[in-house]
Amino acid sequence: MNVLMVSSEVESLARTGGLGDAVEALSRALGSLDTNVVVVTPKYGVTRVPAGAGRWPSPVIAPLGLGHARELGVLEARLPGPSAPRVALLTDSQLFDRGGIYGDWRGTFTDNAFRFATLSSGALSVAERAWNGALPDVVHAHDWHAALSIVYARRTRGAAWSRVPTVLTIHNLAFQGVV
């Protein structure tokens, strides 16, 4: 089984709280059950990039609607330790290479909705390559930051994507992406 995990945080890479812990633990647990997991998350300025991470030879395109798209680089690595899932870090210096995940000392980033819409679409583009053209068996989106991946899969990526089962896990209802 192939599972695409989409999350703004992963404990070993960049996290602010329990979301990153839960995503990494679940990914490892699924990996121990012989599930092929690919976790897609941004590469922030504060991300701890695993040793041996390699850049994909060509970028992925994240369609964002109304004819707009974003070109994203991808760094692929394995998390350290047993049952380590593959991780695809989306790179875009304008959107993600900042001194925080959701904000910095000046406050919350005002473009977070766009940043995480890009993550959501980019994750599906990564999945289209991660399994050599096969789609994942499940898309698991974590919190509001990744929720649009489900909408994009169902509504904008064609019939095959619309049939892929999806899961949305809300880790903390207090954080809804509302500014």
Keywords for this structure?
two-stranded antiparallel ribbon, 179 residues, Rossmann fold, 10 strands
List the helices and strands and how they pair.
Layout: E1 2-6, H1 18-32, E2 36-42, E3 54-55, E4 60-65, E5 68-78, E6 86-91, E7 103-104, E8 107-108, H2 112-130, E9 138-142, H3 143-155, H4 159-162, E10 166-169
Parallel strand pairs: 1-2, 1-9, 2-6, 9-10
Antiparallel strand pairs: 3-5, 4-5, 5-6, 7-8
Question: Can you offer a commentary on this structure?
Answer:
This protein has 179 residues and is α/β, with parallel strands linked by helices. It has one domain: Rossmann fold. It contains four helices and ten strands. The strands form two sheets. Strands 1, 2, 3, 4, 5, 6, 9 and 10 form an eight-stranded mixed beta sheet that branches. Strand 5 and strand 6 form a beta hairpin. Helix 2 packs across helix 3 (143-155). The longest helix is centred in the C-terminal third of the chain and has 19 residues, at 112-130. The termini are far apart. The mean pLDDT is 93.
What class, by secondary structure content?
alpha/beta
Number of domains: 1
First and last CA, distance? 37 Å
Order of helices and strands: EHEEEEEEEHEHHE
Shape: globular
Cα Rg? 15 Å
Q: Helical proportion?
A: 25-40%
Spans of 5+ residues with little confidence (pLDDT < 50)?
none
User: How many strands?
Assistant: 10
Number of helical elements: 4
CATH class bucket: Alpha Beta
The biggest beta sheet reads: 8 strands, mixed
Q: What is the CATH-assigned architecture?
A: 3-Layer(aba) Sandwich
Task: Let me know the average pLDDT.
Answer: 93
CATH topology label: Rossmann fold
Beta-strand content bin: 25-35%
The CATH superfamily name is Glycogen Phosphorylase B
